[in-house]
Amino acid sequence: MGADPHPQRTPLAVSMGDPAGIGLEIAIKAWNQRGEKGLPPFVMFADPGALAARARMLGLNVPIADVATAAEGFDAFSASLPVKAVPLAKPAQAGTPDTANAPAVIASIEQATAAVVGGEALALVTNPISKHVLVQTGFAHPGHTEFLAALGERHAPGKRRRPVMMLASPMLRVVPMTVHCPLASVPAAITRTLIFETVRITFDTLKRDFGLAAPRIAVTGLNPHAGEEGDIGREEIDTIAPAVNELRAEGLLVSGPYPADTLFHAEARRGYDVAVCMYHDQALVPFKTLAFDEGVNVTLGLPFVRTSPDHGTAFDIAADGSASPRSFIEALRLAAAIAGARAAAVRP
């Protein structure tokens, strides 16, 4: 008999996401392809009835196994989809979100995170949520990433968490310096401190979790043509370039600032391992253009591993069963790989 491909015998924890979106669908489809895709075992933190109903809608035979703890799900995974029950207040209707189910969406994230922190699960994979739906019930965080940072602080009090979003695929990795920030507020938000923190966290993560001995980091400018020597803005001269130079003096392989419009073609991408960008769309437009179906969102700077598919709830297609599970599958694989790399690093 060969070596156990899952020596820790610990499953991944998967949050439900908005049950009216495609999160339940892509999880069901991923489980249905578990053998052919060689997927790591995972446990859903979700409403079992909602999963069963969605499987019936998709015409798939998916046995549901209720588990008392995430750890029980490892052995159950081969024959059934393990579910740690998080009951919904109302039956989920695909494509029609309901604020009544917002508490369950939040509870699913909290319980799945607690399972990872407590060692019952290997890493966290989150399904998409609708911030708009959650905000109507008092959700106080700018987005999923910031909520996870708050949970990190809850489980490890006394240490400030600086979450950093990275989108990763075989073709490209990007990090937006600012995320859920109005475009008009971006220039004031770009400070040397923010650049230092973001680049250092990114550098350390690429070394530890992705096995890059000397990660190459390219930094974009904020303005068109990276400011054109100050003619189209001075942020590059006053803030970005001095920060890049200081980081380079520390020994990090950091370069820039580069004009964003010439940084993402094939030849340019060969010159770096990750592009750190100034704002959300500057990073995500090229990334989703190149890797929409296989991209994975990774949150850096947390005390646990978290990945997610690189798309939203897709309410508009949730009722027709056409969602692709590919990004979710890649999120499962990357979560398991990062968790494995961290475990290997601490073994004697």
Q: What's the short story on this structure?
A:
This protein is α/β, with parallel strands linked by helices and 348 residues long.
Q: What is the element layout, followed by pairings?
A:
Layout: E1 12-15, H1 23-32, H2 34-37, E2 42-46, H3 48-58, E3 64-66, H4 73-76, E4 81-85, H5 102-117, E5 124-125, H6 131-135, H7 144-155, E6 164-168, E7 173-176, H8 186-189, H9 192-210, E8 216-220, H10 235-249, E9 253-258, H11 266-269, E10 274-277, H12 280-291, E11 296-300, E12 306-309, H13 326-346
Parallel strand pairs: 1-2, 1-5, 2-4, 3-4, 5-12, 7-10, 8-9, 8-10
Antiparallel strand pairs: 6-7, 6-11, 11-12
Strand content: 5-15%
This entry's quaternary arrangement is: single chain
Could you say which structural class the secondary elements and strand pairing correspond to? alpha/beta
Order of strands across the main sheet: 3-4-2-1-5-12-11-6-7-10-8-9
Element-by-element helix/strand order: EHHEHEHEHEHHEEHHEHEHEHEEH
Annotation, overall tally of beta strands = 12
Instruction: Summarize model confidence as the mean pLDDT.
Output: 93
State the share of residues found in helices, binned by percent: 25-40%
Residue runs with pLDDT of under 50 for 5 or more positions: 1-7
* Largest sheet geometry: 12 strands, mixed
User: First CA to last CA: what distance?
Assistant: 25 Å
Shape: globular
The number of distinct helices, counting runs of at least 4 residues, comes to 13
**Rg (C-alpha, Å):** 21 Å
